[in-house]
Description:
By secondary structure, the protein is mainly alpha-helical.
Amino acid sequence: MPSVNQINPRLDATVRVFDSFDDFGVTVPAMEYDAVFSYLSSVFRNRAAALSFTMALFRVAQQSGTPIMTVLDQVRAPDSIRVTVNLAYFLNGIRSPSTLLGINTAVTPNVWAARNVLP
């Protein structure tokens, strides 16, 4: 079932970050960006995932009005599973309630709304 956050495979990753997230762009100090990106690179071992989560953390920090280093300290955990759980918590704060991360139960739409959706 497609979701609001489904990726368009025809766009490259950098375009997707800036187009899909309501034209989000922020200017940050290089040291803060390097600190967040290097930590997430050490946790995920995948450059694309680290870049994506780095941008997401900066968006969380901007929308919550919290300094990025405080958000990074709250995300840090001893293992990658706990880091993923912490990231899901923060990312759910900026996502649509119908597309929450880490939720196993499917959201059941209203029967009248569901019948208007094309397969």
